[in-house]
Design brief:
This protein is mostly beta strands. Helix content is 0%, strand content 29%. The strands form 9 sheets. Strands 4, 6, 7, 8, 9 and 10 form a 6-stranded mixed β-sheet that branches. Strands 13, 15, 16 and 17 form a 4-stranded antiparallel β-sheet that branches. The protein has a 3-stranded antiparallel β-sheet with strand order 11-12-14, with no helix packed on it. It is rod-shaped, with a radius of gyration of 45 Å.
Length: 327
């Protein structure tokens, strides 16, 4: 058994229960053969070493006890203080670097290379968490200086706290590339971001000029409702990030919708009976809204040639040709 009674004959509160073994009532240190169990008849748990009553209160040595010394058990407690009470840093994805506090002895001697750790919380009512924070936000930082036997001082915490503000980091987003096109839609590939691709919401938009629009943004990469055979510029942006700033592509990617593909009409019949009236040839798949036709009506007997053409360059035949059809 080793026991150090720092106040000499310090009373121990009864009925609390064991602290480090069996001591539970009476006095903590009374001398040799003192019972430290609940029963006066218990001879198995006694202080064997004498603890003389002639030791002076407050002395640093006991004739029959362990050696005590200022070198082995330092009693100096340094002053730890943050010179500045607020610091701003930018999010890096790693624990934030904190400006170290000043650590000095009571006489003003600056302690070189003290072992410092930190703890933090987000509000006064919370408990401190070991380390420094990572995510964007405002935090209360406390410094903890470890005990140093070599330096001769006890461990302590800072007398003040540091307000640490972690700000959002800058990032860029490139314009999305075109994956697929139709005559009325464009499918875009996800954009490439410099950082934080999973932090925020990616949105897409388009414009007829190479300037990022202020409206019309959507989360889906499929852009619909476009005009056929028309050039557009496509943009991407990312918003609502926790640790990164919003970003939008400075320049758009140019893409063009397809021409509308039309099936080629087919002549219903080659031969028509003479009636003396005008006879008009009929075609399957002819659309007067997108096609023109000439030479398909006649009155007299004979052989005739009809020609079907596309009304606009916005249209093409299904085989991607646009030459007139001769029947």
């Amino acid at each position: 058994w080793y026991a150090v009674d720092v106040t000499w004959n310090d009373p121990f509160v009864p009925e609390i229960g064991p602290v480090s073994g069996y001591e539970s009532h009476y006095w903590m240190l009374l001398g040799s053969n003192t019972s430290v169990h609940r029963s006066e008849d218990d001879t198995d748990h006694l202080f064997i070493e004498s603890h003389p009553v002639n030791n002076n209160p407050g002395s640093l040595s006991f004739p029959n006890g362990p050696e005590l010394s200022e070198e082995r058990y330092p009693i100096i407690r340094p002053v730890v203080e943050f010179p500045e009470t607020e610091q701003k840093v930018v999010y890096t994805g790693k624990p934030s670097q904190v400006n170290a506090p000043k650590v000095e002895l009571e006489d003003g001697t600056l302690i070189q290379n003290p072992k410092i750790s930190y703890s933090y919380k987000t509000s006064e009512n919370e408990k401190y968490i070991d380390g420094t924070p990572v995510d964007v936000g405002t935090y209360i930082i406390r410094a903890n200086v470890a005990t140093s036997k070599e330096g001769g001082y006890r461990g302590t915490v800072s007398s003040n706290t540091l307000k640490l503000v972690i700000e959002k980091a800058f990032r860029t987003v490139a314009a999305p590339t075109v994956k697929e096109v139709t005559d009325v839609s464009v499918m875009l590939n996800p954009p490439v971001l410099s950082a934080g691709s999973d932090d925020g919401v990616i949105e897409y938009a388009y414009n007829t000029v190479n300037q990022s629009p202020s409206v019309g943004w959507q989360e889906e990469p499929l852009i619909t409702g476009l005009s056929r055979n028309t050039a557009y510029y496509f943009f991407a942006r990312i918003t609502n990030g926790k640790n990164y700033q919003d970003a939008v592509s400075n320049s758009g990617t140019e893409g063009k919708t397809d021409k509308t593909k039309l099936p080629k009409p087919e002549l219903k019949a080659i031969t028509y009976s003479y009636t003396g009236e005008t006879v008009t040839a009929e075609f399957n798949g002819f659309d007067k809204n997108t096609m023109n036709i000439t030479g398909h009506s006649a009155t007299e007997r004979g052989n005739y040639q009809a020609e079907i053409t596309l009304k606009s360059e916005d249209f093409t035949w299904e085989d991607r040709t646009s030459t007139p059809l001769i029947f």
